[in-house]
Design a protein that fits this description.
The chain is an all-alpha fold. The chain is 83% helix and 0% strand. It has 18 helices and no strands. Helix 2 runs antiparallel to helix 11.
Length: 466
């Protein structure tokens, strides 16, 4: 009985944080979320680091597969974002029944997608990899792909369950589950790749096994221990067009955003092969692993904004929504400047993570050079990220998608092609185009979000915060 009361008190605290003072809520949610994403990135980074020991072709293969893998992760994150948005709004409106049903709908949707997509995708993989310019790395790419994409349901299911925990403010246990995944993957990678002599396929199996363990842990919390805020008993599932529509309104555009980002990476890889060789793809892959690591605190802030902004919108408190938006940008901008400086100063040391073997030692200076250039990519990221996340939080996923299209496809791809190929500036031109395009797209997203929040205040008025 005492344990039950303790659980109820902790759950109440989590919910009140989401509904409470927005700056405090952003800080409380962002740190564990950022830690979760750091752990996810660490096990992705571990794959690249250990695989790089197999040679430049193996590392390049990871570079070609990564955008496809991120689409799969995007499916899980998209469904999770849709559920997170609706659950947060339901919590803000104090409607637990809708929150329960949204969680159950998201699990059902993720299960169906996780079964259907591999059947369609796997036969197309060799053609897709060839189109991307990855034919020279086909042996490595396919050995990794068959495992990762064949069992992709594990990643989607883990993403959705983690999003459910985050949406009710239980970010600590979401972080614990991911920590288990990351630590296991980091430990298993060298064992599977080298000790068991499984090569690049060993990296894939290590990732799958570690994710399965994460799913088992979260399944235990939700359906056996049953100590989450939401009640996920099947009796609480009521087939609802409204719930499905609200989840998909965010999930489809959010997944499409990841698809666009992955298409961007594919385009950049193809351009780099045109102006250089697959070695430059390996350099870009290594550099972006570090850039993505640096983006983790920003993504943690963005995910916190999605939850806090969504709850404020559900409560029709636009003062809180505006405060959470501006605070996220201010903190994110300071962090991005600090991390960009670290990348510039310690580029040679960071490059050694991917060039420690005799086969890749010649890449050290080249990776450091590109890393210093791409550090500028971080500076204005908080503005566009906050714009996208606030729209996802209020259920306007299509607007977030449009912002991503403007930034990634219209801005970054076109300018990368213009500078790198049309103007003949080579790979340096491609990287410069990425930076300029990101800046323009981020400013458009920021401006659009500010206009939306201002319009909300005009239409609904300000609700006093007690």
């Amino acid at each position: 009985m005492a344990q039950a009361n303790e659980f109820e008190e902790e759950t109440h605290k989590n919910i009140e944080v989401i509904r409470g003072e927005p700056k405090r809520a952003i800080r409380k949610l962002a740190l564990p979320m950022a830690l979760s994403m750091l752990l996810i990135m660490l096990y992705n980074l571990a794959d690249s680091i250990w695989v790089s020991g197999l040679g430049a072709d193996a590392l390049a293969a990871i570079g070609f597969i990564t955008p496809l893998f991120m689409i799969i992760i995007g499916l899980g994150n998209g469904i999770g974002a849709g559920a997170n948005s609706l659950i947060a709004r339901a919590i803000g409106a104090k409607n637990k029944q809708v929150a329960n049903n949204a969680a159950l709908h998201s699990i059902l949707i993720s299960t169906i997608i996780g079964i259907v997509i591999p059947i369609i995708l796997i036969p197309l993989l060799p053609t897709i990899i060839t189109i991307m310019g990855g034919a020279p790395t086909m042996k490595y790419a396919m050995a990794y792909s068959y495992v990762i994409f064949g069992l992709m349901i594990v990643f989607i299911f883990a993403s959705v369950m983690s999003a459910i925990l985050r949406s009710e403010g239980d970010v600590n246990r979401a972080t614990i589950a991911i920590a288990i995944t990351a630590i296991l993957n980091i430990v298993l990678d060298p064992i599977f790749i080298y000790s068991l002599n499984m090569g690049i396929a060993g990296a894939a199996w290590a990732t799958i096994l570690s994710s399965i363990i994460s799913c088992i842990v979260m399944f235990y919390w939700m359906w056996i221990k049953k100590d989450t805020y939401m009640d996920l008993e099947l009796s609480n599932f009521k087939a609802s067009k409204y719930v499905t529509k609200e989840i998909l309104k965010v999930a489809i555009p959010s997944t499409a955003e990841q698809l666009i980002i992955s298409l961007l990476v594919m385009c950049i890889n193809a351009m780099l092969v045109i102006v250089s060789t697959t070695t430059q793809v390996a350099i870009y892959t290594a550099t972006m692993r570090i850039v993505q690591m640096a983006m983790i605190p920003l993504m943690g802030l963005g995910t916190a904004l999605l939850t806090v902004g969504g709850a404020a919108y559900g409560a029709r408190n636009y003062k809180k929504m505006n405060t959470s938006f501006t605070y996220t940008i201010k903190v994110g901008f300071i962090i991005s400047i600090i991390l960009g400086a670290i990348m510039i100063i310690f580029a040679p040391q960071l490059s050694l993570l991917f060039s420690y073997s005799a086969e890749t030692a010649y890449l050290t200076d080249k990776i450091a050079e590109v890393m210093r250039i791409m550090s500028l990519f971080l500076i204005f990221m908080p503005f566009g990220m906050a714009g996208s996340c606030i729209f996802q939080g209020v259920g306007r996923g299509t607007t977030s998608l449009i912002i991503t299209v403007i930034r990634s496809l219209i801005g970054e791809v076109i300018l990368a092609y213009t500078f790198g190929i049309a103007m003949g500036l080579g790979y340096m031109g491609i990287y410069s185009g990425l930076i300029v395009g990101s800046f323009i797209g981020s400013m458009i997203g920021f401006g659009w979000a500010k206009l939306f929040i201002r319009e909300c205040k005009k239409l609904f008025g300000k609700k006093a915060e007690n």
